[in-house]
Amino acid sequence: MEYPEAKICLVCSNGGHLAQLHRLKPWWGGRQRFWVTFDKPDANSLLKGERIYHCFYPTNRNIPNLLRNTWLAWKVLRRERPALIVSTGAAVAVPFFYVGKLLGMRTAFIEIFDRVDKPTLTGRLVRPVADRIFVQWPEMTAVYPGSIYAGSVF
Questions:
Q1: What is the mean pLDDT of the chain?
Q2: Which residues of 34-62 are buried (b: 16+ CB within 10 A; e: fewer)?
Q3: Domains defined for the chain, CATH in brackets
Q4: Cα dihedral across residues 116, 118, 121, 124: positive or negative
Q5: What are the tens digits of pLDDT across the range 51-96?
């Protein structure tokens, strides 16, 4: 997926998900972009100077925050109009992928490094609307048929 001039949305929870997506800076660093993540010290420190939209947490199995994040996705994606939404998870990716797909945006999910033999819940939920799924272990291509083994971000 090459979008050299297109705006991208990088959406993920903080912690390891953010660390892995941030490691792809050689790819996203020269692109117009914005982030969607939690308002947490590690995220704010790592993304200092970046454009950030803070989403609602906790997200896992929290229906009220799923609804809040769906509304946030609707507002942010309509305002920003990225060509591509990229995520390493976790649950905050789900509303952004589905709303993005409704708005005609492309989506790419990167399964996290610590998954070697089974998908994450987020991976299972976004798979129906993901244009591309990238995995970090060759074994995961059997878990996600049609996925692309891209190697490790580490």
A1: 95
A2: bbbbbeeeebeebbeeeebbebbbebeee
A3: 8-149 (3.40.50.2000)
A4: positive
A5: 999 999 998 889 999 999 999 999 999 999 999 999 999 999 999 9
Residue type, 39: D
Question: How far is the C-alpha of 153 from the C-alpha of 114, rounded, in Å?
Answer: 11
Compute CA distances 124 → 24, 118, 129, 143, whole Å. 23, 10, 10, 10
Closest CA to 119 of 96, 99, 92, 90: 90
Look-up: residue for tokens 């999910």?
Answer: 109
> CA 21 to CA 23: how far, in whole Å?
5
CB 4 within 8 A of CB 78: no
